[in-house]
Amino acid sequence: MGQFNPLEAVLKKKKPPLPSILKDIQNVIFKKHASASCASTIQKFFPYSNNLGILKLVKGSTATKKIRVGVVFSGGQAPGGHNVLLGLCRALKKINPDSELLGFLNGPSGLLKQSYIPLTEDVVSDYQNLGGFDCIGSGRTKIETQEQLNQALKAVQDLNLDGFVIIGGDDSNTNAAVLAEFFKAHNQATTVVGVPKTIDGDLKNDYVQVSFGFDTASKVYSELIGNILIDARSAKKYYHFIKLMGRSASHITLECALKTNPNLIFIGEEVKRDKKSLQELIDSCVDLILQRAQDNKNYGVILIPEGLIDFIPEIAELNLEINEKIAANPQLNHENLSEHLSEDLKNTFLSLPDSIKKQLLLERDPHGNIQLAKIETEKLFISMITQKLKEHPEYHEKFSPISHYLGYEGRCAHPSPFDAEYTYTLGHIAALLVQHEFSGYMASALGLENDVEAWQLFGLPITSLLHLEKRHGKDKPVIQKALVDLKGKPYQEYLKLKRNWETDDLYNSPGPIQFFGDTAVTHIQNSLVKMN
Ligand code: FBP
Question: How many C-beta atoms surround the C-beta of residue 143 within 10 A?
């Protein structure tokens, strides 16, 4: 590792506490807690795993044989990943000192290539409480084709793995369910387990209060937004347009807004419900700018979720058509595509700046998702607002916009005390699910608003979270993304506050994450969880 860093040195020594039930890990078992139904449209894809119940970890005696487990990071980085490795490693050793953990390198492709390093206490303890996925790296390869599934099967056989743990988001956990099913169908006893990771906060259900990383990332972004708000109020001359990461759902934007009180935010799910056009969104920004100018306030801060562009009905339709057209003809580019589009979408496409046209055509990720992180919605807004303000020359010259994109800045921060403890616990649950041979399950902990000692631990069948979605033009079973609930308390709270945010500068700067002392909070505080 690099140069001596006093904060890291102290963090590395801080062993995360565990829920009470895990204090005697050799004497716990999973008991069926509730039934979990798998959608009828999904059952045929998972004949071996469509009827699994929800499990709860309780006290009970069990055999503690030696187990050999492989683990992989899949998808985008999220704070706390290293503590999952640490939790897994320590739990496996506590279960049986001869157990082993292998870390596959650079994502799921590491399994296919059988490229791994042994994850011993010496290796993982050097990363205790540190951000990043750099201990083993991550990647976005999807194990999907028959050839890849066979390669994965060969790898777990060659390496004699009792378990394989995928630390990932919705698509990666879907992949865990697919692999678990494939192994069962081939009489391969390797247990496949998922761990819920993603800063986006959209992997969320009755048994996953929050995915790990969301707490830290939203706190890091809120710190930065808070600083920008105070700068805006001090300089009184700039409008800041801040795009925030979170591929689809607007959870991060809503969470950061409730923590910082900016002037205006957009929530993709609301835009979709109200069928708002791009021009209507621009008009609402212009209205805000004109209204604030009446009070001599030619400054402000506007938050834009990364996924917004795909919630605007005409752009979402355009994206779907682009997906189909480029799947059929990969040679299409931003200059010749319009001739292939239907008439009204052609006009929408042609009305966009060239830079955005190109970005809409960028290669899809291996899961078939458009790369929204690369679409500069914040710049699109600035350019359209500047154009519209030409109708108001007296304000046009006072409009001085600055664009920001906060995304990668938050994904590898050192985990907040909550994320550090949550991930350490999730690693232990994953080890126990492997030990007890519950394949196709996701590690889950509830009661996260309480201190760690009181958390309740579960195993959740991944197939119960699946639904059918179009990917690369075909129906695929995938975990349904949890979008912002427009009837939920966080959104309702925002509705109550937003009018005052527009006119009064109620800016709040929450400051950096605290790791020690009275303000180092170890339970979940996010509005997303607390208010739901
Ligand atoms: P995961 O869903 O894999 O956790 O990744 C989420 C995310 O951080 C999104 O918010 C963002 O759109 C995307 O990853 C960026 O991907 P990449 O790291 O490949 O640029």
Answer: 23
Residue 83 has pLDDT above 90, yes or no: yes
Radius of gyration of the chain (CA): 24
Let me know if 446 is exposed, middle or buried by CB neighbors in 10 A (0-12, 13-18, 19+). middle
200 flagged as catalytic: yes
Structure letter (DSSP) for residue 480 = P
Q: What is the pLDDT of residues 313-364, one digit of tens each?
A: 999 999 888 888 888 888 888 888 989 999 889 999 998 888 888 888 887 7
Please give the model's pTM, rounded to 2 decimal places. 0.94
Helices 251-260/214-235 angle, 10° precision: 50
Eight-state DSSP code of residue 17: P
Compute the distance from residue 247 Cα to the ligand 1 centre, in Å: 7
pLDDT tens for each residue of 116-128: 999 999 999 999 9
From 401, 372, 374, select the one nearest 386 (Cα to Cα): 401
Residue nearest to atom 19 of ligand 1 (CA): 76
Identify the residue whose C-alpha is closest to ligand 1 atom 11.
Answer: 247
Q: Which of 162, 170, 171, 200 is catalytic?
A: 200
Neighbours of 148 (CB within 10 A): 17
Q: How far is the CA of 171 from the centre of ligand 1 (A)?
A: 11
